[in-house]
Design a protein that fits this description.
With 430 residues, the protein is an alpha/beta fold. It contains 17 helices and 14 strands. It has helices spanning 16-27, 34-47, 55-64, 92-102, 105-121, 131-135, 149-158, 165-174, 196-209, 232-249, 276-281, 300-307, 320-331, 356-364, 376-379, 404-409, 413-428, and strands spanning 5-9, 30-33, 67-72, 75-80, 124-128, 141-146, 187-190, 252-254, 265-269, 290-293, 310-313, 335-338, 368-374, 393-396. Helix 2 (34-47) packs across helix 4 (92-102), helix 13 (320-331) runs parallel beside helix 14 (356-364) and helix 14 packs across helix 17 (413-428). The longest helix is centred in the middle third of the chain and has 18 residues, at 232-249. It is elongated, with a radius of gyration of 24 Å. Bound molecules: cytidine-5'-diphosphate. The site of cytidine-5'-diphosphate has 17 residues, from helix 1, helix 2, helix 4 and helix 8.
């Protein structure tokens, strides 16, 4: 799977972090603050009372450092020898010494490798000085942001920080290894006269021009669930199933940070059990749309299933009306759950998918969220009415965001098949 990298570079206090954070939330990416990595190494050096200009000693200490980079939600995290230095990273001594440390090639090599590692696991928006030029030179998504020196100085002192922005900039621009430059292919954005939302809008415009797969139909909302209350009948099912999952099956969610919580999303999951739809529904705090086999819509089910936003589907033959209903709901902004395999698995393995999901995904033009369920087949196996106390795990994968070109390529029968295949591969990889 290839992940997208958005590179944001620029001088100190140009607004990189705020922009990167907002883009991460809106587009469902992980924001990596590469400056925090250089700051963290600087913190450790100062803590060990090593002079940052004593390059040999710095390199010796660097070799002993265990640097762990990860992410929680959409934000990057860092630990050095097990300690999270985040609270100390904006202290005056670090501001004063970070440029000296970051000019050491061995420090850069070590951190650039860790920065590139992120892209093996997730889509990222990474901000720094050399992201577009050195870390991800091949990414087409590059923005260089800048602002007048007086504006940038004012921003820092406005934050109450003691930081000589101009000195740091001069050092970062003039160093030999990976100096601050406008990377090849980067679009410049001057933020001096822009508000935060103005910067974000401009950046989204630039990314669109650079071909970034912005969700086609999706209004760009913060990645937070809107506070729409559930109707009581939906809430009742959601709450009872959720409580049961947690107590009986020790429900574990992995990859929650990948979850797109706002706007329309097509959720593609493997199918193991009757427990699956409310299991996915419990990932969110607002209502969503499901499909249920036609034969369930009898007796009380005829009333209850529509209350739970279930749309009937004919499993015996391709059901165009239910596919159209899925596309319509996605275009209206709903999140919709589809089980591409159609039927529940008999042996826990993932079965062959019907091409319907590829068509729905291509026509709806929304982000696709691959999800894999483990253990529900043991908790309530198909064909058995008996519940066992098996542990259920749900893994949420990074969203598949298609570019306008990809949507075009997937817009015929072969395309639907290829997209189905891509979605299934993403589920199986979880
Ligand atoms: O937030 P601010 O713009 O002040 O700085 P930062 O992004 O936290 O970066 C702090 C320092 O780390 C910079 O002044 C650079 O010396 C160094 N840095 C770097 O060399 N390369 C990067 N990709 C990011 C930061």
């Amino acid at each position: 799977m290839t992940y997208h990298a958005i590179a944001i570079d620029g001088p100190a206090a140009s607004g990189k972090s705020t922009l990167a954070k907002t883009l991460a939330e809106r587009l469902g990416l992980v924001m990596v603050n590469s400056g925090a990595m250089y700051r963290a190494v600087t913190w450790k050096i100062l803590r060990e009372e090593i002079d940052p200009s004593d390059t040999e000693s710095v390199i010796r200490l660097l070799d002993e450092m265990d640097i762990q980079c990860g992410h929680v939600g959409s934000l990057s995290t860092i630990r050095i020898n097990g300690t999270d230095p985040t609270p100390f990273l904006r202290e005056p001594e670090i501001n004063a010494n970070v440029s000296t440390v970051s000019a050491i090639p061995q420090v850069r090599d070590r951190l650039v490798a860790l920065q590139r590692d992120y892209l093996k696991r997730t889509h990222v928006v990474m901000e720094g000085r050399d992201i577009g030029s050195v870390v991800f030179p091949n990414t087409p998504f590059k923005i260089y942001i800048d602002a007048d020196p007086s504006v940038r100085d004012g921003r820092r002192s406005g934050d109450g920080e003691i930081d000589s922005v101009s000195q740091r900039d001069a050092a970062d621009r003039s160093r030999k290894t990976a100096p601050l430059v406008v990377a090849d292919g980067a679009t410049k954005l001057d933020t001096s006269a822009l508000t935060i939302s103005g910067v974000v809008d401009a950046a989204i415009g630039i990314l669109g021009q650079q071909g970034f797969p912005l969700p086609k139909q999706a209004p760009l909302l913060p990645n937070e669930e809107p506070p729409t209350p559930m109707r009581w009948i939906y809430w009742l099912g959601w709450m009872s199933f959720g409580a049961a999952y947690r107590t009986l099956f020790g429900l574990r969610i992995i990859g929650d940070e990948n979850l797109i919580k706002a706007g329309p999303v097509l959720i593609a999951s493997n199918h193991q059990s009757f427990l699956d739809p409310p299991l996915i529904g419990n990932l969110y705090k607002t209502e969503m749309v499901y499909f249920a086999r036609k034969s369930l819509f009898t007796g009380i089910g005829k009333w209850l299933y529509p209350q739970w936003n279930a749309i009937p589907i004919d499993q015996e033959k391709p059901d165009t009306s239910s596919m159209k209903a899925a596309i319509r709901h996605l275009k209206e902004g709903w999140r919709v759950l589809i089980f591409p395999e159609g039927q529940r698995t008999l042996d826990g393995e993932i079965c062959e998918a019907a091409p319907g999901i590829g068509m729905i995904a291509a026509k709806a033009g929304v982000p696709i969220q691959p999800v894999r369920i483990f253990g529900a087949d043991k908790a309530l196996p198909r064909g058995s009415g008996k519940i066992s106390m098996a542990r259920i795990t749900v893994k949420v994968g990074p969203p598949i965001l298609l570019s306008p070109e990809e949507f075009k390529a997937y817009s015929n029968k072969e395309g639907y098949l290829a997209l189905t295949e891509r979605i299934m591969t993403a589920i199986k990889a979880l």
